[in-house]
Design a protein that fits this description.
This protein is mostly helical. The radius of gyration is 26 Å and the shape is elongated. The chain contains three helices and no strands. Helix 2 crosses helix 3.
Length: about 80
């Protein structure tokens, strides 16, 4: 039987599997169910972000009316094209 040293493909594959499993365990720990307070805070941050995003779009539309009109027309064409 050949001597299995650190550079052998079998040993490297075994280590790769161990690292993969460690990564999966870390991922599970990071993405556990959040407590309700954390979930509520996340929703508040998301709502604030979406409000600010909408406000930024409205500002851009006021500052660049021609571009906003073109974007509205493109959106309307897209909606007409993909009717169901």
């Amino acid at each position: 039987m050949p001597n299995v040293d650190e550079g052998s493909p079998e040993l490297r594959e075994e280590r790769r599997g161990e690292r993969r499993e460690e990564h999966r365990q870390e991922h599970r720990q990071e993405h556990r169910e959040d407590p309700p307070e954390a979930e509520a805070e996340r929703r508040r941050r998301r709502a604030r972000f979406l409000r600010e995003l909408t406000e930024a779009r409205e500002l851009r539309d006021r500052v660049q009316p021609r571009r906003a009109r073109t974007a509205r027309l493109r959106h309307a064409m897209r909606m007409r094209t993909f009717r169901w």
